[in-house]
Design a protein that fits this description.
By secondary structure, the protein is of the alpha+beta class. It folds into two domains: about 130 residues, Phosphorylase Kinase, domain 1 (2-Layer Sandwich), CATH 3.30.200; about 230 residues, Aminoglycoside 3'-phosphotransferase, Chain: A, domain 2. The longest helix is centred in the first third of the chain and has 27 residues.
């Protein structure tokens, strides 16, 4: 639990954002601040608390907010996976500290927690993120309306920072993931190594680097969420719009990484074709509304081709981690057959040559 004196100091800083002006913030005592633990962070690297304030006048003081307190183990005791998680919390802190507010101001349809205060230290890697508490319905099982709203959110988020030159600068300036998504190949060597060397998995294993490089070369580059699943979404009270949070793996990538992951993990396979078209139409509408003449929306054919690559890439991760969501193996086998005619090409270099010949 966060010490009371620290909780009081953090709350005092956050109240500036709730009241608007520092001189309007009433002085608080320790007993005015109540923390309730909501959940433990992944791998035990901290906790999320709900903060309730009492003891000051006015209505705004009763508005609860959230503290995300990250306490990773020391760097010397971190495994490769621990480092990935610890670094991801730094990315999330950077997102809320430097990007969330301008993103919300310029794109009000992108619903996110509002950051109040971000603090680093005193322990190495320790991070505290104070933000608004989203009020609404957690999404345990998504209905079709929820899915379409989530896809609309992603279309707006992806279009907000579109184009390789823009996104490279943004990622560097803000400190986001150089490659967005928690399951891309560079960050999952153990899962890749644990894939079978035989059968269709062996073929996918040898094609994996070529698929990953093709996604990196995709001219569709933007800011992606990196972990857009139903557990990281909420339907807001009042507006009924979908909001997303947990931006730990936000960074550069093709939007199809987000879409393939979301469709496979959170949607009904029977609705996929209509949902892809729905997202694509929303994305094109968002891109056409921008005044930048250098932005040309992708064709539907290009988007669908990229999506097949992203499904293969996600399947590669699941082969080493464990499968969930709807079964994508049939489409992966079909794509592999395009590359090798159903016969293992025998090396990563051969699959790289095949994919360069077959695709862009």
């Amino acid at each position: 639990m966060i010490p009371k004196d620290r909780a009081l100091r953090l709350t005092q800083n956050c109240l500036v954002h709730l009241f608007g002006e520092e001189e309007d913030v009433p002085p608080l005592q320790e007993n005015d601040v109540t923390l309730r633990q909501l959940c433990r962070l992944w791998a035990g690297m901290g906790h999320i608390y709900q903060v309730t304030v009492s003891g000051c006048k006015g209505n705004k003081h009763s508005r609860p907010f959230v503290i995300k307190h990250v306490t990773p183990p020391s760097r010397t005791r971190q495994s490769f996976g621990d480092r990935r998680k610890a670094d991801s919390y730094q990315v999330e802190a950077n997102f809320y500290e430097k990007l969330a507010r301008p993103l919300q101001t310029e794109h009000p349809g992108i619903q996110l927690p509002t950051p109040y205060f971000v603090e680093h230290g005193p322990e190495q890697g320790e991070i505290t993120i104070c933000m608004s508490l989203l009020e609404g319905r957690p999404i345990n099982t998504m209905n079709l309306g929820d899915v379409k709203k989530a896809l609309g959110w992603m279309a707006a988020f992806h279009a907000a920072h579109w184009g390789e030159n823009q996104i490279d600068t943004l990622v560097g300036d803000v400190g986001l993931q150089r490659m967005g998504s928690y399951w891309h190949l560079d960050t999952r060597p153990d899962e890749h190594d644990s894939m079978s060397r035989r059968g269709w998995e062996g073929r996918l294993r040898r094609a994996a680097r070529a698929i990953d490089e093709c996604l990196k070369r995709d001219p569709m580059q933007c800011l992606i969420h990196g972990d857009p699943k139903e557990a990281n979404m909420m339907v807001l009270d009042g507006s009924k719009e979908v909001a997303m949070y947990d931006l730990q793996y936000c960074g550069k990538g093709t939007p199809t990484r987000d879409i393939a992951y979301f469709l496979c993990s959170s949607c009904d396979e029977d609705e996929e074709e209509k949902l892809v078209e729905h997202y694509y139409n929303q994305l094109v509408e968002q891109l056409l509304s921008k005044t930048d003449p250098t932005i040309t929306p992708p064709t539907l054919e290009h988007f669908q081709e990229s999506l097949e690559l992203a499904f293969c890439d996600f399947c590669r991760f699941m082969c080493g981690w464990g499968h969930w969501g709807y079964d994508v193996r049939t489409r992966v086998l079909a794509f592999l057959h395009r590359l090798d005619g159903g016969k293992d090409l025998g090396s990563e270099a051969a699959y790289d040559e095949a994919i360069r010949r077959e695709l862009w």
